[in-house]
Automatic annotation (TrEMBL):
It is found in: Cytoplasm. GO terms for molecular function: L-seryl-tRNA(Sec) selenium transferase activity. GO terms for biological process: conversion of seryl-tRNAsec to selenocys-tRNAsec; selenocysteine incorporation. InterPro entries: PyrdxlP-dep_Trfase, PyrdxlP-dep_Trfase_major, SelA-like, SelA_trans, SelA_trans_N_dom. GO terms for cellular component: cytoplasm. Keywords: Cytoplasm, Protein biosynthesis, Pyridoxal phosphate, Selenium, Transferase. Residues 9-46 form the L-seryl-tRNA selenium transferase N-terminal domain. Its EC number is 2.9.1.1. It catalyses: L-seryl-tRNA(Sec) + selenophosphate + H(+) = L-selenocysteinyl-tRNA(Sec) + phosphate. The modification N6-(pyridoxal phosphate)lysine is found at residue 293. Its main location: cytoplasm. This is L-seryl-tRNA(Sec) selenium transferase. PANTHER family: L-SERYL-TRNA(SEC) SELENIUM TRANSFERASE.
């Protein structure tokens, strides 16, 4: 009992604050925050001792605990991590990673005033869309473009501008829900438009569209069924099939492409995805697509198409609420510029580099990392280098998978509890969290997105994974 009483003699706040070891903390975090954290720490220690526990209350121990507390409280909530899920464009992990040219442009836009809405030729007020307009017209074949916050905003703005109070015809097979509560019927309602569903879930015919058109029809809309496919007894009316009907009735056609790629991915050995240009040339009056999916740029939504329709969209007061900021445009422009050299794109555009990374590269990496990871995990788990399949993600080509290689982490038979869940948590608790994927009683670490420049850091932090390591 005398021991406990002794432990309650905690160092005084003013003495701790005056200690030389405390001065760097005051310098970094400020006096107020340091004092507050110190008081809270001492209160916790007192509470622990009164409850019969033990604690090191020496000055160095208290100041070390204070430093840890302040560091934790000031650590950014936004953390970079290793995406080893195998999904390259992972919506919950931030989608496309941008190339250094874009990073540099964003840094400049943050540090310097820029010609965001300033025409440097005339010295007069300009239009922010014009900063990327020329690139996009060239890459898509469209007459005009405008940029908004994301593709959901692009669809909303397009529908509100062209179809508020009127009807939009959509096939029942294309009433898509994208993750994160983007549903075509709901967006339609919020845009003030009336959804007119035609056809059946599995089959829609041209005559369904023809019969759906009436006095109140404002728009025909096709939606890329990004995240699912309907197989079996199916019939979809393709854009070229639909165009003559639309022209005859004088009604525009809009296509929500979702991912929307600017190049033919087949030339890089990837599955074909309809390009924006093909869609425009195929007769779409307006196309909407995301900036941070296959395009590989920052989050934004791009509306491309007929000049008169884009002009109407730009005049909608909602455009002001949905417009993009300068950082987005700064990042987007250099990414679009890369597309003018399509042969160099797989090397320069991060998204495409990851998507086209050969399985042999991941196989070699898996072979290299198998032993160190096994060593860090100890005998409770087995680690094997095995083939896996990556996905593009963000709804692009959901059924096409990319051959890859990874580490298969499995618990030894007979382990109680949820050993894979425990391991998944330990990986998430690393200094740079590692996110894998659990399937078939295996925690998979797909190595596609672990590029050479980061392997060393990945390996170094394995020390924290060991059962006796700091993170255990
Ligand atoms: C992804 C997607 C959207 C939403 O795009 P965001 O850029 O995430 O807002 C809309 N429609 C389709 C078909 C999509 O695939």
């Amino acid at each position: 009992m005398t021991v406990a009483v002794q432990h309650l003699r905690l160092p005084a706040v003013h003495l701790l604050l005056a200690a030389p070891a405390c001065q760097p903390l005051v310098a970094e975090y400020g006096r107020e925050q340091t004092v507050e954290a110190l008081r809270a720490l001492l209160a916790d220690l007192r509470g622990a001792l009164l409850a019969g526990g033990t604690a090191d209350t020496s000055e160095p121990a208290v100041l070390a605990a204070l430093a840890a507390r302040l560091a934790a409280a000031n650590r950014s909530t936004m953390r970079r991590l290793f995406n080893l899920t195998g999904t390259v464009l992972h919506t919950n992990l931030g989608r496309a990673l941008l190339p250094d040219v874009a990073v540099q442009a964003v840094a400049d836009a943050l540090r310097w005033p820029m010609n965001l809405e300033w025409d440097l030729e005339t010295g007069k007020r300009g239009d922010r869309d014009s900063l990327v307009e020329e690139h996009l017209l060239k890459l898509t074949g469209a007459e005009a473009v405008t940029i908004v916050n994301n593709n959901a905003a692009a669809v909303l703005l397009m529908l509100n501008t062209l179809a508020a109070g009127r009807e939009v015809i959509v096939s029942r097979g294309e009433l898509v829900e994208i993750g994160g509560a983007f549903r075509i019927p709901d967006v339609m309602t919020r845009a003030g438009a009336v959804l007119r569903e035609v056809g059946a879930t599995n089959r829609t015919h041209l005559k369904d569209y023809a019969e759906g058109i009436g006095a109140h029809t404002a728009l025909l809309m096709k939606v890329h069924t990004s995240n699912y496919i309907i197989t079996g007894f199916t019939k979809e009316v393709t854009l070229p099939e639909l165009v003559p009907l639309a022209r005859e009735r004088g009604i525009p056609i809009a296509v929500d492409l979702g991912s929307g790629t600017l190049v033919d991915l087949e030339q890089y050995g990837l599955p074909h995805e309809t390009t924006v240009r093909e869609t425009i040339e195929g007769g779409a009056d307006l196309v909407t697509f995301s900036g941070d999916k296959l395009l590989g740029g920052p989050q934004c939504g791009i509306i491309a198409g007929r000049k008169d329709l884009v002009a109407a969209i730009k005049n909608n007061p909602l455009k002001r609420a949905l417009r993009v900021g300068k950082l987005t445009l700064a990042a987007l422009e250099p990414v679009l510029a890369l597309y003018h050299a399509p042969d160099l794109l797989p090397e320069r555009l991060t998204t495409l580099r990851l998507l086209t990374r050969p399985a042999a590269a991941m196989r070699a990496l898996a072979a290299r990392l198998q032993a160190p990871v096994q060593c860090a995990l100890g005998v409770a788990y087995t680690v094997n280098a095995e083939p896996v399949t990556s996905q593009i993600g963000s709804g692009a080509l959901p059924v096409d998978v990319l051959p890859s290689f990874g580490l298969a982490l499995r618990a030894m038979p007979g382990m109680r509890g949820n050993p894979l869940g425990v391991l998944e948590r330990r990986l998430r608790a690393l200094p740079v969290p590692v996110i894998g994927r659990i399937a078939d009683d295996t925690l998979w670490l797909d190595l596609r997105c672990l590029e050479d420049g980061h392997v060393e850091e990945f390996e170094r932090q394995l020390a924290h994974l060991a059962p006796e390591g700091p993170a255990a």
